Amino acid sequence: MLTILSAALQIITMLVLAYSSDFFNERTFHCVFGEFWILPLLAALLKIPDGGREWSRWSLVTLISGYPYFHPIISAWISENTLNVKKRAITAATYNVIVQIGSLVGSQIYRSYDAPYYKQGNKVLISICALSLATFMAQRQHLRMLKKRKEKIWERMTKEEQAIYQNDSVAREKDGNKRLDFRLKYWYQ
């Protein structure tokens, strides 16, 4: 009964976050939002003294487990950054395999020797959250660098060269998202 609230919260926050991501045509900030949601809550869970304060602990756990799930945003992000249909299928499958492996690893974070407050497990989750934030920022910077590199080459081309380049359908299928006229999504654009 007490878990219904966290499930409802996660559904609502996931839908709101996905809608907002589509509305603003932005992915990185929305994924990072989920990490910023959970990080202070995990830190607070570590700071609550052992024993007593069960409703405070329940409130934190409810907010943690109801965090905005950004899996749909990342799936869409991968799809829109992969022009070639074959590569899109491979990248989507690879991402889903990585998510499943992460679930297997995640199931081992809370250990019986760490019960009932799981201090060590929560420290591991904080570390994973920090790593995730760093990964999102590194991904953003990498995509930004690739976009700038493409734009420099594109701007050096004449209008005629750009038109010929855009009309080459064989190269379009072969090059996919590596094409100069394909813009990678990462932030407000």
Automatic annotation (TrEMBL):
One of its GO terms (cellular component) is membrane. It comes from the Eukaryota. The keyword Protein transport does not apply. InterPro entries: MFS_trans_sf (IPR036259). One of its GO terms (molecular function) is transmembrane transporter activity. It is a multi-pass membrane protein. It is found in: Membrane. Keywords: Membrane, Signal, Transmembrane, Transmembrane helix, Transport. The keyword Membrane applies. Residues 1-18 form the signal peptide. This is Major facilitator superfamily (MFS) profile domain-containing protein. It comes from Monilinia fructigena.
